[in-house]
Amino acid sequence: MYSYYRKPSRSLEDLEPQTLTNLYQSGKLDASIAQPAVSPPSVTFNDQVILVQMDMTRMAIDAIVNAANKSLLGGGGIDGAIHSAAGPGLRNECLDLNGCETGEAKITSGHRLPAKHIIHTVGPIYYDYKDEGRDPAKLLKACYVNSLDVARRNGCSSVAFPCISTGIYGYPGDEAARVACKTVREYLEAQLEESLFGPEEEEEKEETADAEKEETADAEKECGEEKVATVEGSDAKEEVVEGAKGEEKPVEETPETPETPETPETPETPETKEEKPEDKAAGKEEEEKPKEKEAQPPFLCKIEKVIFCVFLDKDLATYEDTVPSFFPPADPSVEGAIDKLEREASEKPATASNNENTNINDTREANPSEKPGQ
């Protein structure tokens, strides 16, 4: 028997008190001691993001994200914890996925986990990319974006992320937290714009773009045909002129007339042979592009909750210092620790001076004969 079954799971309702809005109001998350704000405050986004430190395998939500390796067959850290808790069925399902490249994401069922699905993504190895002169932040951002896309295409509205690549892959925790918060904020903003403008307008834009591409391709083909027609017309004119000249010449020079049509045939054949494969290749490329778009299933839902789950062996302070930069408190009445100390410090001198004045007045009242300066 697995000890996992005796561990209580936590539903999305149990995690609701850990939203950023509630953390700010309760004082557990202090924006005054964090980095300066980069994004504007928003109640909508603060209600959508949850920050918690716990065992991710206990979450009873739509999907949890696994920081996997390229084989998807298990490893250390959060990857090993998820595989051991989900059971051998997860490994068997991962065998059919044929691995995963860095920055990409693939989904499986949750098996023995309380979560419905597991989204596997492969983060970048930090120092390998640094040594090669490449930026690992681009691939780390792709991990979050592709994971959220996979979640939406599979009907998962709540997604929990671990600290991707911060284990044996060596990504610094503060830098990884910054990429995670920035990417999630940008994704939620883009999702909100989609809901405001609607998907129909985006489909119309894609259709118009495809129609414009087809029109340009047809126009190029028509231009090519016109060029060939003009060349043939010029050749025909030359034949007529040569024929007219041939009537004045003696009969012995007439055999030269059949040689003239042979000369234009030689340049026509390579031109037509060269244009046809190019046109075919261009047509194939245009046909393949919409096929790639159609291969991706549409979004079935929208992301309602994003959970930054700091595993038990990670430091929560990295997210506490970074989250307020991209998700600042929207309630102006929320007071941070530094703001509170500054306010108390500013109030102390005023109260002290008031107390001194009251004491002087009291002594004067007690000794009315005494005058100031005596």
UniProtKB/TrEMBL annotation:
InterPro entries: Macro_dom, Macro_dom-like
Comp. bias intervals (Basic and acidic residues): 208-252, 270-295, 337-347, 362-374
Organism domain of life: Eukaryota
A Pfam family: Macro
Compositional bias of kind Polar residues: 351-361
Annotated region described as Disordered, given as residue ranges: 192-297, 324-374
Location of the Macro domain: 36-327
Protein name: Macro domain-containing protein
